[in-house]
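Table S2 (continued). Query chain:
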Amino acid sequence: MERFPAARPDSGDAACKLTIIIPVYNEAATFSTLLDEVRALDVAKEIIVVDNVSTDGTRELVAALDGEPGIVSVLQSANHGKGSSVRVGLALARGEWVVVQDADLEYTPEDILRLLAEAEARGLDAVFGSRLLDARPDVPWHHALGRDALNLLFRLLYGARMTDVATCYKLMRRGVAQDLVLDSLGFDLDYEIPCRLRRGGVTIAEVPVQYDPRTLETGKKLRWTDGLVALRAILRYRRRMRDLDTPPAVGDLLTLTAPPFGPREATVVRVERTHVVAEFELAGRTARVAIRPGPGPASRVAVAPRSAAREATDPPAQPAPS
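Corresponding output:
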């Protein structure tokens, strides 16, 4: 089983305990209410809002947040799926902890503080908010059947006693989250993240959270086909990640070519057995991602020779502190 490197001194912005990522797509009816609830949380935080090319006025609401203290607003140029917005938020995060908050009011932001308290009290790297520990949400029977089957399969394949793999509330240490090599762009990211965590040897704890599910009529975006995509993710990410054949060196330039970050250049700041960590400028700050140079569904990069990278930077640019 792959293991994440030991925790490093870099814990993000010392004044920022928590980064809350809000991916939005056509949530004009609920976004402002949700944002007010998140703003009211009693914790040192930053809020990263990523719009996925909304057409109902949400995009304008997000654009209006530009320059507001404590908020980073990002307007995606193309809709690559919810997972792409979450990955952008993770890359930009500076808090010690990161968590995703949907804008549809299905979850109660106050529960995030309970996850944070549990993580810090027990010294954990990941705590998920389970919708199923205290109650069974009122959802169609076929949705519940598919959900329970996927949860069972995850428990069997990844050795984790979890009740709610696909929950939105996945609290993680920022350093752990930014060390995940992610390539999902849609709802399957909800499954890829716990799969990658478990393959990395991370223990995932759960605490119960409140949940008020929407219906298709009131804006629920999940469809039955998403269950098949989730199944594929659970099976696919069970495979062990191979060591890099020819890893680049620290300071090398990579050209990211796949969404949600490409095309752009990034600088390698750390090299591990199976991946590298690279930094680049995005939305006015330094973004950090873990990637596998070479062919892959969402990690396609071109590696510049080290000498070329040095000539291009002359001298090499030092990575900005996160």
